[in-house]
Amino acid sequence: MKRGCHASPARRVIDNYRRIDIERSMDMKKVVVVVVVVVVVVVVVVVVVVVVVVIIIIMKNIYSALLQKSSKPIRQH
After folding, report:
1. What tens-digit pLDDT sequence spans the chain (77 residues)?
2. Distance from C-alpha of 74 to C-alpha of 67, rounded to nearest angstrom
3. What letter does residue 2 receive in the DSSP assignment?
4. Which residues are listed as membrane-spanning (predicted)?
5. What dihedral angle (degrees, nearest 10) is formed by the CA atoms of 45, 46, 50, 56?
6. CA atoms within 13 Å, Cβ hemisphere of 38
């Protein structure tokens, strides 16, 4: 912690906010938990969708490469 000329007013403001937030702390904790759960669910869904899309693209590439191999003996780069 740096102690400067602005340390004590900032601390007073922070203490005042802490006193106000003691009554709301339980509600805030519930809200924070809900927000964290929603964010985690959204991130998991996005990751799953991206992985599925990447797997589909890779499978299409492998399938088309196999088709090119079976139909043409010389592959075109």
Report:
1. 445 455 577 777 777 776 666 666 767 778 889 999 999 999 999 999 999 999 999 999 988 888 887 766 555 55
2. 12
3. -
4. 31-59
5. 40
6. 6
